[in-house]
Amino acid sequence: MPQNFVPFLKENARKDMIEELNARLADTIDLTNAVKQAHWNLKGTGFIGVHELLDDVAAHLREGADLMAERVVMMGGLAQGTSQTVAKESTLKAYPTDKVDIQDHVAALVERFNSYTVNLRKGIEAADEAGDEDTADLFTEVSRTAEKDAWFIGSNSAKAA
What percent of the chain clears pLDDT 70, i.e. is strictly above it? Predict the structure, then answer.
């Protein structure tokens, strides 16, 4: 087993946190890909603003994924982020590949961000129960950014006006 740099966690808690981090990693990579799918294909009023926003959002998600993957490895696990693993393990609804209208993309992304942040909050609770404050803090940081990004994306909805 690789060296464990989180000696305060009991073995079962460490394994649970590796599993939870990898689960959220799969969701994060999946959501990043959904954001890029929208970024590449959206059309309509406000295109450039949303197009550029989605690049920033994808960068935020990649940062969160990196934090999760590094924490997994630091805890002695193996980060599971291949496209095959993500396709199998993501809990998010599959992103539609036939959309072009900005409003359709905004709605689809907000729906997925809502599911994503719910899962992150469950991860925070699981980390708290395991006594892993650092993982709880990591999930909180990622959740805070995701909620803000979802708000930015959703503010482009015609319904938000």
Answer: 94
